[in-house]
Amino acid sequence: IEIHTDTEIIGLGETFAGYFFPEAVPVIVEFFKPILIGQDVENIPELWSRMYHCGNFWCRVGLGSIVLTGIEAALWDLKGKMLDLPVHQLLGGCQHDRLPFYATGGPSNYPLDKLAAKIDYYLSLGFRAFKLGAGSFEPEVGFQLPTVAEEAAQFEAEKLAFVRRHVGPDVKVMLDGHMNEHPPDKAWNLDVAKTVMTACEPYNLFFFEEPLDYSDPEAYAELCRSTSIPIAGGECLTSLIEWRPYLHAGAFDIGQPDASHTAGLSETMRVAAELESQDRRIAPHSWGAGGSLMQNVHVAFSCSNTAIVEVTADYGPLH
């Protein structure tokens, strides 16, 4: 999304809605456009508030707020260019000298020699942290995810034992259940997730992401209490209003807001602040293109409770 001015400066922002439903983005941008025409970027939170409340019957959560993220990001980009300042300074200042980033890229490739090659590629790029998917993917058989508790637990534990033998104890390793992407009959329930976590505890996971779907914040909270593995989630949640039931439940040890998805950079920071008030951390989700990555980088450096940041190691055509 571009915001043009009466100078040569153009603000650029990305909405993660473009990854899933690009046809809808221009229409929603046109809806908000009159609110911004003739304005300046002195008070971006006020402009965001006008847009958000103008669409309050349909953009409090969901698609409208996701598109609003890209518009608000373009305003911050525009202001940063006008003032010759990085956006993290406009958001309150840099809170970190350095942050770790982890390589991400979809499923766990099988057979195990394929998984080892994938890990070696990440390490060859300089990463000391990476995330793999639950289950397995083989070209001949497709994606496989055990859903019986003991079978799923044994599979993930054997995978992690192999990974630890391969990389040693010092590389950060994460697993992603992707349970939000599975229909209910193919996703893990709380009992399965608890059994899997118990089996995975010896392997020093940095976090386990989305081991449950998003139908029950209390189930997520119970899982957090039942395991020593930090439970991560929240990438598909949009504005703070949608986050609040999960925040109030204590559903995530590590929240994963996305500054190209969570209603705005400022709104993403509000989510991070509420997590910090519970002594919990964030690991921003970042699966968009360059704009999405930079939005998340600047938010990550602006939030004192950032633990790690996601990076797509190999960009595909949509990136």
Describe this protein's structure.
By secondary structure, the chain is α/β, with parallel strands linked by helices. Helices cover 44% and strands 13% of the residues. It is built from twelve helices and twelve strands. The chain has helices at residues 17-20, 25-36, 44-54, 63-83, 87-90, 112-124, 149-167, 190-200, 217-226, 240-249, 265-277, 290-302; strands spanning 2-4, 10-12, 101-104, 129-133, 136-138, 142-144, 172-176, 205-209, 231-233, 254-255, 281-282, 309-312. The strands form four sheets. A six-stranded parallel beta sheet has the order 4-7-8-9-10-11. Helix 3 (44-54) runs antiparallel to helix 4. The longest helix has 21 residues, at 63-83. The model has no long low-confidence stretch (mean pLDDT 96).
